[in-house]
Design goal:
The structure holds 2 protein chains of 2 kinds. Chain A is α+β, with helices and mostly antiparallel strands. Helix content of chain A is 24%, strand content 38%. Chain B has a single domain, classed as Immunoglobulin-like, CATH 2.60.40.10. A 4-stranded antiparallel beta sheet of chain B has the order 4-3-6-7, with no helix packed on it. Chain B starts with 6 loop residues before the first strand and ends with a strand. The chains are: A alpha+beta, B mainly beta.
């Protein structure tokens, strides 16, 4: 009857303090990351990723810009900046077509935050990089190919 | 691996505050193998939140494709010298970290 509890204790021991807290129900991993959009981050194709983000078929827009190198020597650290001049930009996502999972990062921008975000991503190989933006309730997208000389996913 | 403190800079030019964040995290993808050929489990930041005087100014979600020791830069309207900008992250193992900086 108590086998479940025993399992919980066993795994608690193996996982250390966090495991114990999880087993005891004090913290659940689900609660800790309730808002993380797993479906979108697990998406393997562009269509799946767009669907998971609720983007449908975004329109190409010149008002969305990707600022990144044409050639990245080290795929483990590729600087990517996304800027949108569309009024009311509230969401920015960076997707990398040939990575195992396309979505690299997404940002929600509250009123007052500039639609201009920079970060660094890993790229396994030369690929198109997409910047997806939501502005005024509609999705827009732009693409840039970044050539990678040394892949960054195999380490 | 225990994550170290974030390095955060927040600079105001009078109308806008520019925030630069360097997090300390392995951002393990879950695709790599160790020397014995076993997969190294994914361990990466999933969510990051930046607040200015308690108001959220940026909410981000990261997948494993964000580089090791993630860098992030953004700008928000307002913010004056002496204000506080606080940044928190959570990773896929439930580890958390929050650091705070005074706007300069």
């Amino acid at each position: 009857m108590n086998s479940q509890r025993r399992e919980a204790l066993k795994s608690g021991g193996a996982l250390g303090l966090f495991g114990v807290l999880v087993a005891a129900g004090l913290i659940t991993p689900e609660v800790a990351q309730a808002a993380w959009d797993k479906a979108a981050f697990d998406a393997k194709t562009m269509d799946d990723a767009l669907k998971a983000l609720g983007a449908g078929k975004p329109a190409d827009s010149k008002d969305v810009q990707i600022n990144a190198p044409d050639i990245a020597e080290n795929g483990a650290v590729v600087p990517v900046a996304v800027k949108s001049t569309l009024p009311g930009t509230e969401f920015i996502a960076i997707l990398i077509e040939k990575n195992p999972s396309m979505l690299a990062a997404s940002f929600t921008l509250p009123e007052g935050t500039a639609a201009d975000v920079s970060t660094r991503v890993k790229m396994g190989q030369t690929s198109n990089v997409f910047a997806l933006v939501k502005a005024g309730g509609s999705f827009y997208m732009t693409t840039k190919e970044i050539k990678v000389t040394l892949g960054g996913c195999g380490g | 691996m225990a994550a170290g403190p974030m390095r955060i800079r927040a600079a105001s030019n009078g109308t806008e505050t520019e925030v630069k964040i360097l997090m300390s995290h392995d951002m393990e993808t879950g695709q790599r193998k160790d020397a014995s050929g076993a997969l190294i489990p994914a361990h990466h930041i999933t969510e990051i939140t930046a607040t200015h005087n308690g108001r959220v100014v940026l909410a981000g979600q990261f997948g494993p494709a964000v580089s090791k020791n993630p860098y992030l830069q953004f700008k928000f309207k307002g913010g004056a010298k002496g204000d506080k900008v606080s940044v928190s992250w959570v990773d896929n193992k439930g580890e958390k970290r929050t650091d705070e900086v005074v706007v300069s």
